[in-house]
Amino acid sequence: MSAQLLDGKVMSEALRAEIAVRVAALKEKGVHPGLAVILVGEDPASQIYVRNKGIGCEQVGIHSVTIRMPETTTQEELESQIRALNADESIHGILVQLPLPRHLDEAAALAVIVPEKDVDGFHIQNAGKLLNGLNGVVACTPKGALEMIRRTGVDLTGKEAVVVGRSNIVGKPMAMLLLQQNCTVTMCHSRTADLAAHTRNADVLVAAVGKAKFITADMVKPGAIVIDVGINRLESGKVVGDVDFDSVKEVAGWITPVPGGVGRMTITMLLENTVEAAEKLLVK
User: Fold this and answer.
1) Which residues are catalytic?
2) What is the pLDDT of residues 128-170, one digit of tens each?
3) Model pTM?
4) What is the DSSP pairing of strand 63-69 with strand 34-40?
């Protein structure tokens, strides 16, 4: 029996409808949520991501500004632009589209964003709050992945969760979120010995390694929730995830597709983080 599909498009549309209601409520109180995206250079993939974020903002009623800066932008110019947005009361969320050109220091630039406007959840202060179980901005991709897991209706308390990948953007925050749901969490990575022995024990398996079709059916526990965060382009041009979808869907209980899975939810969580930042102004 094939796994149930966790459709990111369907879930994100439902969530965006809820976000639009929250935006309308804020506007009635005189607050118009605003998101600013800084795009440095002409990276084609980044252009697509930024366009999709703009479409999402328009869909829910968020004021969206895209600031395009040339490839030759200096670190000082980038940080100056971020500081200007920090001071702009019409902007509630700031996002620096990654990757930046190689001559720029990403970590230093992200550190300039005030934590309250860090809607990507990458600021060290927000990462620290997540680690300590405090209320802060949660990185969009793991936040979206957790929402998909929740929508299976499975009680996560006591479940074995395995996260494959230890990046600061996905793997580590994903593990923290699952711990907060009372899962027993194992983090695996490129140097894990006998990876399959770990993944076969997972009730919840999150793949975020950046290797096409890396997780195969023999590595998955029957009935498991399988969340595929990977986005890989084959030589043929086809986009696939880190999970071998066609084989794993015959073993798993639930599975996300690529494309149309976690990626759709990531932008929706960005919109939600922006609205949450605006809502916090009303309770100060």
Assistant:
1) 53, 97, 120
2) 999 999 999 999 999 999 999 999 999 999 999 999 999 999 9
3) 0.94
4) parallel
For the record, the structure tokens of 35 come out as 């998101």
Here the tokens at position 259 are: 């494309």
Give ∠ CA 223-181-175 in degrees, rounded to 5. 80
Question: What's the CA gap between 56 and 54, in Å, rounded?
Answer: 5
Q: Is residue 234 classed exposed, middle or buried when 0-12, 13-18 and 19+ CB atoms within 10 A define those classes?
A: exposed
Q: Are 216 and 192 in contact (CB under 8 A)?
A: no
Q: What share of the chain is helix, strand, coil (3-state, %, to 5)?
A: 45, 15, 40
Q: What is the number of other CB atoms lying within 10 angstroms of the CB of residue 133? A: 10
Pairing status of strand 4-5 against strand 254-255: parallel
201 burial level (CB within 10 Å; 0-12, 13-18, 19+) = middle
Cβ burial, residue 79 (10 Å; 0-12/13-18/19+) = middle
Question: How many residues make up the chain in this entry?
Answer: 284
Strand boundaries in 83-224, DSSP class E: 93-96, 160-164, 184-188, 204-207
